[in-house]
Design a protein that fits this description.
Blueprint lengths: L18 H7 L2 E7 L4 E4 L1 H7 L19 H16 L4 E9 L5 E12 L5 E10 L1 H34 L5 H9 L1 H7 L3 E8 L2 E8 L10 E3 L5 H8 L3 E3 L2 H7 L1 H5 L8 E9 L2 E10 L7 H38 L10 E8 L13 E9 L3 E9 L4 H19 L4 H14 L6 E9 L4 E7 L5 E3 L5 E3 L22 E4 L5 E5 L11 H13 L5 H15 L5 E8 L10 E6 L4 H17 L6 H18 L4 E9 L3 E9 L19 H8 L2 E7 L2 E10 L5
Antiparallel strand pairs: 1-2, 1-5, 3-4, 4-5, 6-7, 6-11, 7-8, 9-10, 10-11, 12-21, 13-14, 14-15, 15-16, 16-19, 17-18, 17-20, 20-21, 22-23, 23-24, 24-26, 25-26
């Protein structure tokens, strides 16, 4: 803001300037068109813009045809007439002007329409200017916009292809992404071919659309004169920019694809770790040539496809290794065990709901044992990888070894837990071991963090059997808890024991109890044959496409009409272990009833209980109770209680108020025979009962 006393600035003499010099400085000419008189007046600058000498123009608009081509003149007349008709105040347009030397030049005109009080157009006053540079700039911008759009389109091709390939797990997945219709759209090509390098040759693995395959090119040598072979051989792309170039460089291949109307093509090597693993050819019907930017983008596309292929190949190699390892670790065959029917199934987890399979640590095993017994194992090692499969194999072997050595179920599980804890791994495992005497139907079950077993009875009903369990294998030793409770079940003739991993039970959106209810109902309504039932359960697991493995073992005891294998049942009982005593009593009761001596079960159980109690009270170690069925001229049931003391039991007379001393009297009264046998550093006290032959 200036001071109040300052004088006003002086202005130039010619201010404000006349419009003509201003227009001239901007290379514009002016015109005044009198519509009533039909006269068209132009200033000197307008004459220069239109390349007309004053003597060449008589002031009539139609005389401008000397410089304005007829088509352009008609278009301008149409624009002016429309502007006057619709009441517009002005108009403007670009038009081409034919100069004196015959060349065409772009020009622009703009007019202001003056009307009278009635709205009738009377005059048009306007300007005309040279628009050559302006049009060149516009054209340049359009060309740049087109280049930018092409670059964006190619970049988008890479992004779309990369996004689609990100979900490909296997080589077939990669091929499917590239050769389907959407894949061609993503790649911006009319058709494609892709080959993989195998033993010095290129095997075609994808081509599309269907009519793009050239006979004789399914398998080609790397040294043959094909663009794909050259790309693999030289590790550099081959760009073919016209049909003529294609026909000249690769005449044999061109003869097989002329019907595709190909105008250009790009063959890109697929390189992984500096080694060619294949090549891809993209063929176009709507473009000629490749700019440097195009080439860079396509090379990047080839690199992305190569990375996806390498990732898929490594995944398949790992899967082959893992599946081979797991198959080697699982039992090759399940032995035939007299007295039962067995069915086992294994299903690997599916990935992302698809067909690809992962590897895991689920396993099953069936272990024949002496005396008509059989051990059934189901387990699950934490994780889904080759390490889980390796740990699973080692666990399966040691469990089988411990069981075959004759250890009772609780000891088998405890030793397996210690083994896994001492193994150089951070994995743990859940497991369930069931030892069944097929003669008596007595099943002793030990559970280490695993889901409970299920029983299906002869009438088809099914129920979950709640079994008290211990910690998963590998954790119990760490937490100082090696005790695994033993539960005793009765497997009646015709009944089925089902062991499975949680992959068969777990369902999306449902808890484990709900899954067990669904599984129980499914078993109840399933086929009677264990193999058919196993197939049905695995089919259901496949339909769910769960993300966990499934291992399944079904053991069905033969019905009453089937031959029986008589053997023995055995239980270890430790001092101060009331649950061990309870389980032993349960085992004896079930065995006696199974062997057809239900009417004598109370006497036999009472004698066995007395012998076990004496062994625990008068020795410092544990006792082993064994129940045998002896067949010969008569059927005898023999109870044996073994301890580590060499001191023989003494029969004593109990006083009137005595609470002890009556044990051997009771044994002598109830048993048909009894006695004592030395056994190493200890002894066995035994009692025998003559039992009637079972009916049927």
């Amino acid at each position: 803001m200036s001071d109040r006393g300052a004088s006003a600035p002086s202005l130039p003499d010619d201010w404000p300037a006349h419009p003509d010099p201003i227009l001239a400085l901007n290379r514009m000419g002016s015109f005044d068109w009198d519509l009533d008189a039909g006269l068209f007046h132009m200033d000197a600058q307008a004459h220069e813009v239109l390349d007309l000498r004053p003597e060449e123009f008589d002031g009539r608009p139609e005389s401008l045809s000397l410089r304005v081509p007829t088509a352009e003149s008609r278009r301008i007349d149409t624009i002016v007439a429309q502007a006057m008709k619709d009441g517009s105040e002005n108009y403007g347009t670009y038009f081409r002007l034919r100069r004196r030397d015959g060349t065409l030049r772009w020009t622009h005109t703009q007019g202001y329409i003056r009307r009278d009080e009635t709205g009738r157009p009377r005059r048009i006053i306007g300007v005309v200017r040279d628009a050559t540079l302006e049009i060149a700039d516009i054209a340049g911008n359009r060309e740049q916009d087109a280049l930018d759009e092409a670059r964006r389109r190619l970049t988008n091709v890479v992004q779309l292809a990369t996004a689609a390939l990100a979900h490909a797990r296997t080589v077939d997945d990669v091929i499917d992404v590239l050769r389907d219709t959407h894949g061609l759209t993503r790649l911006g090509a009319t058709s494609l071919v892709m080959g993989l390098v195998e033993a010095g040759r290129i095997r075609l693995v994808a081509d599309g659309p269907e009519n793009s395959f050239v006979p004789g090119t399914r398998i080609t040598r790397i040294d043959e004169p094909y663009p794909m072979s050259e790309a693999v051989r030289t590790l550099s792309p081959r760009f073919i920019e016209s049909p003529e170039e294609f026909a000249a460089r690769y005449p044999e291949l061109w003869a097989g694809i002329t019907h595709l109307d190909i105008t250009s093509a790009a063959y890109l090597p697929l390189i992984a770790q500096a080694r060619p693993i294949g090549a891809i050819g993209l063929l176009y019907s709507d473009r000629y040539g490749f700019s440097p930017e195009d080439r860079n983008v396509l090379v990047a596309l080839g690199s992305g496809i190569a990375q996806s292929l390498q990732r898929a190949m490594l995944y398949e190699q790992e899967m082959d290794l893992a599946e081979g390892l797991q198959q080697a670790m699982l039992p090759r065959t399940i032995p035939t065990v007299p007295g039962c029917d067995v069915a086992v199934r294994y299903r690997a987890a599916s990935i992302g709901g698809g067909l690809a399979r992962d590897i895991g640590g689920d396993w099953y095993d069936l272990i024949p044992l002496p005396g008509g017994r059989v051990g059934a194992v189901i387990g699950d090692v934490q994780g889904h990888d080759t390490h889980a499969a390796a740990v699973m194999g080692q666990l399966r072997i040691v469990l089988r070894a411990y069981a075959a050595e004759g250890h009772p179920p609780a000891t088998v599980m405890a030793r397996a837990s210690v083994f896994l804890h001492e193994l150089d791994t951070d994995r743990f495992a859940t497991c369930l071991y069931a030892e069944a005497d097929l003669g008596t139907g007595v099943v002793q079950v030990v559970r280490a963090g695993h889901i409970d077993p299920l029983l299906r009875f002869g009438d088809g009903t099914c129920r979950l059997v709640r079994v008290e369990g211990g910690l998963p294998l590998g954790l119990s030793a760490e937490f100082g808890r090696l005790a695994y409770p033993v539960a005793t079940l009765e497997l009646d003739p015709g009944s089925t024991l089902l062991l499975c991993t949680d992959g068969l039970v777990e369902q999306p959106g449902a808890d484990l109890d709900e899954g067990m209810e669904v599984l129980t109902a499914l078993i109840s309504s399933g086929p009677k044959d264990v193999r058919d039932l196993a197939d049905r359960l695995i089919d259901v697991a496949d339909e769910r496409r769960g993300d966990d493995d499934v291992a399944l073992l079904l053991l069905r005891r033969h019905g009453p009409g089937a031959p029986r294998t008589f053997g023995r049942v055995q239980q270890h009982v430790s001092p101060g272990d009331p649950e061990g005593l309870t389980e032993a009593r349960h085992m004896i009761r079930a065995a006696v009833r199974s062997w057809g001596a239900r009417g004598q079960s109370d006497e036999i159980e009472l004698v066995a209980d007395e012998l076990m109690t004496n062994a625990l009270m008068h020795t410092e170690g544990s006792a082993v109770v064994t129940l045998r069925l002896l067949t010969g001229t008569d059927r005898r049931l023999r109870v044996e209680v073994e301890d580590s003391s060499s001191a023989l039991p003494r029969r004593r007379e109990a006083g009137d108020d005595g609470v002890s001393g009556r044990g051997l009297l009771l044994v002598d009264t109830l048993a048909d025979q009894w006695g004592v046998e030395a056994r190493g550093g200890g002894k066995v006290v035994w009692a025998e009962f003559v039992v009637a032959h079972a009916a049927g």
